[in-house]
Amino acid sequence: MSGLKKVIIPEMPPLEREMIALRIANMLEEGSYVNLGIGIPTLVSNWIEGRDIILQAEIGMLKSGPLAEEGQEEQDRINASCQFICAMPGSSYFDIETSFAMIRGGRMNVAVLGALQVSAKGDLAGWNNPSRGLGKVGNIGGSMDLAVGARKVIVAMEHFTPGGEPKIMSECSYPLTAKACVDVIVTNYAVIDVTPDGLVLKEAIPGVTAEDIQKMTAAPLKVAADFKEMEL
Predict the structure, then answer these.
(1) Which of 11, 16, 30, 58 is catalytic?
(2) Which of 15, 149, 155, 199 is such that its CA lies 20 to 30 A from the CA of 179?
């Protein structure tokens, strides 16, 4: 991201990764079929107990549950991050071909994915980080299929890189996973909708203003008429 200046982060502490996952879990509608990608998205599974939300693990499992506690580990039950997960009543298992037939066939209501960058147009870059100096090292994996196959894509990520640079851009500078696929971005500071007219700021964490979020974001933001403080 050569040429970008590091931004000043407000003094208000950002959300922890678990709280990003909780905010996303609260967005999911009852009866939804949902796939959770690597990283923060996998934590969403810890916040759906008692709800009618069917999680799909792309390894080949429907009705996967929360992360397994010590002593509950089962070698064949893992999520996208290769973490052990629990089975729920009614869980079913199938091969990887069937799993991706579900994904590519538009059967997933929602995919929750991590990202390295998201553009103002909803382009997603999530598999290769050129700033690491490793060339084209990386693996696009199943995220490409999920990005274009799910009916709705929610990105779960931190607002900044570890170096303090914004990850929401006017244009992505990293190699893309898919174009114009992201519908909602949830970060540790804000909830932002991706619309045909650009990015719309819907929520910000307590103590952070819409003006703060704009300074923290390398793309223009419109403030929603119903902009509000984020609730968990």
Answers:
(1) 58
(2) 15
Domain that includes residue 74, residue range:
17-229
Instruction: Give CA–CA dist 2/124, Å, rounded.
Output: 19
What does the angle CA 75 – CA 81 – CA 85 come to, to the nearest 5 degrees? 45
Determine contact, residues 55/35, Cβ cutoff 8 Å.
yes
Q: Please check whether residue 25 lies inside any domain of the structure.
A: yes
Domain count, the chain: 1
Question: What does DSSP say about strands 117-119 and 190-195: parallel, antiparallel, or unpaired?
Answer: unpaired
Give the number of other Cβ atoms within 10 Å of residue 12's Cβ.
13
Q: Tell me, what amino acid is at 43?
A: L
> Distance of CA 71 to CAs 74, 75, 85, 86, 97, Å?
9, 12, 11, 11, 30
pTM: 0.93
pLDDT tens for each residue of 86-99: 999 999 999 999 99
> Catalytic annotation on 58?
yes
Cβ–Cβ < 8 Å for 147, 119: no
Which residues in the chain come in under a pLDDT of 50? 1-3
Looking at 16-162, list the stretches that DSSP marks H as alpha helix, in order from N- to C-terminal side.
Answer: 17-25, 96-104, 143-149
CA distance 84 to 27: 24
